[in-house]
């Protein structure tokens, strides 16, 4: 008998005998299709003996039916009540201990609760896996360097429909579900919108019953934990795995070798082999992703890296050279230490590239192994694209293209033609940016050293592309051809392959031969004219002597006339003064069958600007897939008060899986009862923000003020600087007024910022410092009081967003037009009834169309104007608004402290130069921005009007569900069908 006292709970008592083991074996023999482990069965059997037979739960039954039919088995899982939930929590406190047995405090309560939820997920998880394996469904695999999951407990309980039973069970032992859930750290697997989008997609894939998996890396420390000090942002390692992760299961039987460096050799059969170098092992960690009100539970597979024990240099360790002993292991392990390690150094660049290849190599080996296993004894590789769809979330997983080719050609023995066709039909690419810095380029030298075989394969792809371009544009206009090659080549500033070079030289030689008589005739005329010129005065000769450059050019042309090869080399040769790089985005476009942008305006920019040459060549490849967010996490679970109101007024909770139902709120927007309930819910959520701000920063803010929020990655193009300059202008005007004038002129505001600046992004860190300095001054100014507060919430993450978004009233999405691909936080804010102020950028355009122009605060230059405005600036024609100059002068007085902000302000000045000339048009849009903020104040004074606008924002967000987006991916790109458990 095992006994344990749990504080506040009766002792747990359970007997497990050898008969249970034999019963388990008998049970499994009768249920061969049920993937239920021995531990799960013992738990089931223990529960059955301990409480399923009690009079409290006598009506609760778990039925497991075996079927020998082709459809497989049917699994009817009971719906637990609070009694069975409590018993499960007790079980894990006793038998899955992560803490000492004498206490049952909140951290232990969280782990026991999470593990009890995981038990239920595992049943559906295994059944989902088993069904998809059995029917061999085509499956989508979503590769992403980031998955910003957030806390899993409330989301899993909510998706399972067990919030009530778990809340009641925990109350019985003296804890609230909310307090227990707060013990969970956010998984540090992502940073911004890229990772959060990936996580919303996984939720929708599961909810819609699509056979799909996610693949990522299991970062030990994530990006970093952000501290805000007197010096601004400071970074420390995130410790999210310090206490373990109850949601993950390590699959020690699933691991793959990953190679770096080495060399390529060719066998007698002509097949290439990559040998030598540095070998590591990628080990799978699986995380269950449950769908909402469905049994489908899909998989997020994360890779961790290690080295075999024999690689440990025991002799060196015993000799006292401990660093040498651990060297190889540390090299392997550090690949999965940090998300986006700094890449200013060669070591940093190498580590980033190792991360990307590890994700691609391990995932593709796993995907190919699953395809072979499902295929049985006969593997038809031509069917690979019929069973596998690989989606690359931005350019980070680009190396999966040459990796598929490497495996198919070098390992499986396929020809180049067959492997290339299979790869192109399998892979698709989502573009997330128009910023040059995010369109990845890797040094060819580094890539060749680290991944020599992949560089050979990329060169083959580049050569294939060059032949396509030459065939498309011909060789008549060599300048045009050169322009197209410069824009479209994968290998930038690299010598043209000999096969293409020979083609161009051959054409040029034929051209010269055809023109030979004309050349002789021209020479005769030149000789005749030359004779005439000799009779002229000496002025012409002097002029010729002064035009050395022209003579050299003439000489070059003469040489080229005699040697076409020299002409081709001049036009198409590489520049030894420029770096040779691999353009990953171009490789994505060439190597896949579909390219999609993530908002309508972004997709148009992709077609017309970013990849215009490719769009002209392959228009059928390009699509739009406007991003979406899951309404479960981002409305139902994080804002239950508003969700209940929506359910009441729309008549059901169908909107959770069919957000089009939200549009029904439009007909009630003027209803005073709805407006009253709406304001009450918003007030409740604002009180939560008040508590969060007090906890995180120590500042006390008034819930009566407007809550104005900008939370996103700190970047110059997102223009947090425009926001804080607007606040500084507001503060300065307040200081110039009497108390009565201030109250008359300004609506009270709490201006909230959140987001991380990348550790090596100096200008972004200056912006963080400036925001906190402004806050320190404004928040302690007794003259201003509650009229204005400025708060920077440290260490912004999903859990912080889940508090800030429901209580926000105005949200700022003010990026320079044409630079934000989409944005998803704008969708979350609108869905929660928050009004937006923003530019016509990213998804803002579509949100404004859906919520109505009168319910969106618009300002700023438009995307098609940006290039012209920058040119105007470079020409010195820009005249800054006096109010903008006033703000800069005010900052320079030192009112916000002694820190030297000259570099920050200087970035907004001048007409050209790196880090100057206001590239992101803060000064240009500033007057329009502050005038638009006056309209915000005016609208907020009329609370009835504001509430109506808020309701219409929620009603208009019906289009922006990730369910809708995933349906489009499944139909248009992946071509997969839902597979629902019986």
TrEMBL record:
Cofactor dependency = pyridoxal 5'-phosphate
Q: What molecular function terms (GO) are annotated for this protein?
A: glycogen phosphorylase activity; pyridoxal phosphate binding
Where in or outside the cell? Plastid, Amyloplast; Plastid, Chloroplast
Q: What GO cellular-component annotations does this UniProt entry give?
A: amyloplast; chloroplast; cytoplasm
UniProt keywords, alphabetically: Allosteric enzyme, Amyloplast, Carbohydrate metabolism, Chloroplast, Glycosyltransferase, Plastid, Pyridoxal phosphate, Transferase, Transit peptide
Catalyzed reactions:
[(1->4)-alpha-D-glucosyl](n) + phosphate = [(1->4)-alpha-D-glucosyl](n-1) + alpha-D-glucose 1-phosphate
* Domain of life the protein comes from: Eukaryota
Q: What class of enzyme is it?
A: transferase
SUPFAM superfamilies on file? UDP-Glycosyltransferase/glycogen phosphorylase
The UniProt entry's GO biological process terms, in alphabetical order, are:
glycogen catabolic process
Catalytic activity, EC? 2.4.1.1
Q: Name one Pfam family in it.
A: Phosphorylase
Query: Does the keyword field hold Chloroplast?
Result: yes
Function in brief: Allosteric enzyme that catalyzes the rate-limiting step in glycogen catabolism, the phosphorolytic cleavage of glycogen to produce glucose-1-phosphate, and plays a central role in maintaining cellular and organismal glucose homeostasis.
**The family this protein is said to belong to:** Belongs to the glycogen phosphorylase family.
- Per its record, how is this protein called by name? Alpha-1,4 glucan phosphorylase
Naturally occurring in which organism (per UniProt): Nicotiana tabacum
């Amino acid at each position: 008998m095992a006994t344990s006292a749990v504080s506040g709970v009766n002792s747990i008592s359970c007997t497990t005998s050898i008969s249970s083991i034999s019963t388990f074996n008998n049970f499994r023999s009768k249920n061969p299709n049920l993937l239920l482990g021995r531990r799960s069965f013992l738990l089931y059997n223990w529960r059955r003996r301990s409480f399923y037979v009690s009079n409290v739960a006598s009506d609760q039954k778990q039925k497991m039916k075996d079927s020998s039919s082709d459809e497989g088995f049917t699994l009817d899982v009971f719906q637990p009540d609070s009694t069975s939930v409590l018993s499960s929590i007790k079980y894990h406190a006793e038998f899955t201990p992560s803490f000492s047995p004498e206490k049952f405090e909140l951290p232990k309560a969280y782990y026991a609760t999470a593990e009890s939820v995981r038990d239920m997920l595992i049943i559906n998880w295994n059944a989902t896996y088993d069904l998809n394996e059995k029917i061999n469904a085509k499956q989508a695999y979503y590769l992403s360097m980031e998955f910003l999951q957030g806390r899993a407990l409330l989301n899993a309980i909510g998706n399972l429909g067990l919030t009530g039973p778990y809340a009641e069970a925990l109350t019985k032992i003296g804890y609230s579900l909310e307090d227990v859930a707060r013990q969970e750290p956010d998984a540090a697997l992502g940073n911004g919108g890229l990772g959060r989008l990936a996580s919303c997609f996984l939720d929708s894939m599961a909810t819609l019953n699509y056979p799909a998996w996610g693949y990522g890396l299991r970062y030990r420390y994530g990006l970093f934990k952000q501290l805000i000090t007197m010096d601004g942002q400071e970074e420390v390692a995130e410790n999210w795995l310090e206490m373990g992760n109850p949601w993950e299961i390590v699959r020690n039987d699933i691991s793959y070798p990953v190679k770096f460096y080495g060399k390529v050799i060719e066998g007698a059969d002509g097949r290439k082999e990559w040998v030598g170098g540095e070998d590591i092992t990628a080990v799978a960690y699986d995380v269950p992703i449950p769908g909402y009100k469905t049994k489908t539970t899909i998989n997020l597979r994360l890779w961790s890296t290690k080295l075999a024990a024999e690689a440990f240099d025991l002799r060196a360790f015993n000799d006292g050279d401990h660093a040498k002993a651990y060297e190889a292991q540390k090299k392997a392990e550090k690949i999965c230490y940090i998300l986006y390690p700094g890449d200013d150094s060669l070591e940093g660049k190498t580590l980033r590239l190792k991360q990307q290849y590890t994700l691609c190599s391990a995932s593709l080996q796993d995907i190919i192994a699953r395809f072979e296993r499902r295929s049985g004894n006969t593997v038809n590789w031509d069917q690979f694209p019929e069973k596998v769809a690989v989606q690359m979330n931005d350019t980070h997983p680009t190396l999966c293209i040459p990796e598929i080719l490497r495996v198919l050609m070098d390992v499986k023995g396929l020809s180049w033609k067959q492997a290339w066709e299979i790869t192109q039909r399998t892979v698709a690419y989502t573009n997330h940016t128009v910023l040059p810095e995010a369109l990845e380029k890797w040094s060819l030298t580094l890539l060749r050293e680290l991944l020599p075989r992949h560089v050979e394969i990329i060169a083959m792809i580049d050569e294939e592309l060059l032949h396509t371009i030459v065939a498309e544009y011909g060789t008549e206009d060599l300048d045009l051809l050169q322009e197209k090659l410069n824009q479209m080549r994968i290998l930038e500033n690299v010598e043209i392959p000999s096969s293409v070079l020979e083609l161009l030289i051959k054409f040029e030689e034929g051209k010269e031969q055809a023109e030979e008589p004309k050349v002789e005739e021209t020479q005769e005329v030149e000789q005749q004219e030359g004779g005439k010129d000799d009779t002229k005065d000496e002025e012409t000769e002097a002029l010729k002597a002064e035009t050395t450059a022209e003579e050299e050019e003439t000489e070059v042309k003469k040489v080229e006339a005699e040697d076409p090869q020299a002409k081709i080399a001049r036009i198409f040769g590489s520049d030894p003064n420029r770096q040779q790089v691999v353009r990953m985005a171009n490789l994505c476009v060439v190597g896949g069958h579909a390219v999609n942008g993530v908002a309508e305006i972004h997709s148009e920019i992709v077609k017309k600007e970013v990849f215009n040459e490719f769009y002209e060549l392959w228009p059928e490849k390009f699509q739009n897939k406007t991003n979406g967010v899951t309404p479960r996490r981002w409305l139902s679970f994080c804002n239950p008060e508003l969700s209940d109101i929506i359910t009441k007024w729309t008549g059901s909770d169908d909107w959770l899986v069919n957000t089009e139902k939200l549009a029904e709120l439009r007909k009630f927007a003027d209803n005073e009862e709805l407006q009253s309930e709406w304001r009450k819910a918003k007030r409740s959520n604002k009180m939560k923000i008040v508590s969060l701000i007090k906890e995180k920063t120590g500042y006390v803010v008034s819930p009566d003020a407007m809550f104005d929020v900008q939370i996103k990655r700190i970047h110059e193009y997102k223009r947090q600087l425009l926001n804080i300059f607007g606040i500084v202008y507001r503060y300065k005007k307040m200081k110039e007024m009497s108390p009565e004038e201030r109250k008359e002129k300004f609506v009270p505001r709490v201006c909230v910022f959140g987001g991380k600046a990348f550790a090596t992004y100096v200008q972004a860190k200056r912006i963080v410092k400036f925001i906190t300095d402004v806050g320190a001054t404004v928040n302690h100014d007794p003259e201003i009081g509650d009229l204005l507060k400025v708060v920077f919430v440290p260490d912004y993450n999903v859990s912080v967003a889940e508090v800030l978004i429901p209580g926000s009233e105005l949200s700022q999405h003010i990026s320079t037009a044409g630079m934000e691909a989409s944005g998803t936080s704008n969708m979350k804010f609108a869905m929660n009834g928050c009004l937006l102020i923003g530019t016509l950028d990213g998804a803002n355009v579509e949100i404004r169309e859906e919520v109505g122009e009168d319910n969106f605060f618009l300002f700023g230059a438009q995307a098609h104007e940006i290039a012209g405005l920058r040119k105007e600036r470079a020409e010195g024609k820009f005249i800054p608004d006096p109010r903008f100059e006033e703000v800069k002068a005010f900052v320079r007085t030192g009112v916000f402290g002694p820190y030297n902000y000259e570099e920050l302000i200087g970035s907004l000045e001048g007409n050209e130069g790196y880090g100057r000339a206001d590239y992101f048009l803060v000064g240009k849009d500033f007057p329009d921005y502050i005038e638009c903020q006056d309209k915000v104040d005016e609208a907020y004074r009329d609370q009835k009007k504001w509430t109506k606008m808020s309701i219409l924002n929620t009603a208009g967000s019906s289009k922006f569900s990730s369910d809708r987006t995933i349906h489009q991916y499944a139909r248009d790109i992946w071509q997969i069908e839902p597979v629902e458990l019986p």
